[in-house]
Amino acid sequence: MNPIQIASDGGRKVNILGIPMVIRIHGRDTGGVVSVVESHDVPGGGPPPHIHQREDETFQILEGDYEWTVGGKKFIAKKGATIFAPRGIMHTYRYLDSQVAVSLQFSSYCAPCTITPSSLTSMCSSP
Q1: Where are the domains positioned within the chain?
Q2: pLDDT per residue as tens digits for the range 27-37
Q3: Helical segments of 1-127, H only
């Protein structure tokens, strides 16, 4: 594995489920150890409730207020909050503010993976 540095304007821009995202570090570049995705959340936006079978996810709220549900527990997460959603646990969020905000998603994998717009959608299974 090699060190990775991504410029502030770097990464691959994608749109997943209506959420503009930037894949900052791709899982294939870390041997499947981790990926980092920057999410540009729109007012009222967020993914449907879903469960990842392979990935643990950690989210860092950089801006804004979010309503989260993780493992049946509902809470408000504000700027600076960190949320951990382990594999096998249903989770979702909804962005509450009126302007676009940014959050970071760190995914850890138990096996090498390939992140594409379709695989980000398909690696989620509805409850």
Answers
A1: 12-116
A2: 888 888 889 99
A3: 117-122
Q: Which helix (DSSP H) or strand (DSSP E) does residue 124 occupy? A: strand 124-125
Residue 49 corresponds to which tokens in the numbers above? 């409730």
E strands along 9-121, which residues?
Answer: 12-16, 19-25, 34-41, 51-52, 55-61, 66-70, 73-77, 82-85, 91-95, 101-109
Return the amino acid letter for 77. A
The model's pTM is 0.82
Per-residue model confidence as pLDDT tens digits over 71-112: 999 999 999 999 999 999 999 999 999 998 899 998 887 454
CATH topology of domain 12-116: Jelly Rolls (2.60.120)
Would the pLDDT of 54 be above 90?
Answer: no
Residues in Cβ contact with 51 at an 8 Å cutoff, skipping those fewer than 6 apart:
87, 88, 89, 90, 91, 124, 125, 126, 127
